[in-house]
Amino acid sequence: MKEPDWKACANRHLLAHVMKQAGRKTYYVHPVDCMRMGPAREPHPLTVELTNTLLKYAHCWALDMADWPGGPPNAAEQREAWTRAMEDADRECRKIRLRGEKVADNTLLAEETLPL
To answer: How many angstroms separate the CA atoms of 95 and 90, rounded?
Structure first.
């Protein structure tokens, strides 16, 4: 049996996670990046940090799956490991948001203030 492409699986899981969280009004982007029109620009540092945090945990999950003791994990083990990874990622993202990042009007950028 061929070993799954764990990086591709992690990318699909991550897309689903981001979409699910958006439905709950939790976003991984600075508001200015949602409002930009015209030529592409560098994303806000907060957007970069949130994105990199999610990618770090997704990548670690993929590595864990590839190195699972006794061969590929079953579906329940994959889900459990993914849930733990995203709980840790979201906990870190909340800290990043609440650390005191400021938006242009000098208000605290908290999770619940991020518009889509």
So the answer is: 9
